[in-house]
Task: inverse folding
């Protein structure tokens, strides 16, 4: 699949137009604003899956912080 077609979901993301700094908090506690935007987003699951698949290390993706995504990956490995 072409990269541009694979990322079409981004055009419908609730975070479009929001300052990127919101999604790159210094601490997990500072991630609440980003998570609030994510939880109202219609493409949240696709965003999270993209971040998990691509091992995105930084920021909040699909409503999950870096630490939360690592936990999801570990849980998936255990249940596989």
Result:
């Amino acid at each position: 699949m072409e990269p541009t077609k694979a990322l079409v979901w981004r055009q419908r993301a609730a975070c479009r137009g929001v300052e990127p700094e919101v999604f790159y908090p210094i601490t997990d506690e500072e991630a609440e604003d980003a998570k609030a935007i994510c939880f109202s987003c219609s493409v949240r699951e696709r965003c999270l899956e993209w971040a998990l698949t691509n091992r995105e290390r930084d920021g909040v993706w699909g409503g999950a912080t870096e630490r939360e995504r690592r936990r999801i990956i570990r849980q998936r490995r255990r249940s596989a």
User: Anything to note?
Assistant: The helical segments are 3-6, 32-39, 44-53, 66-79. The mean pLDDT is 92. The radius of gyration is 13 Å. Residues 3-79 form one domain.
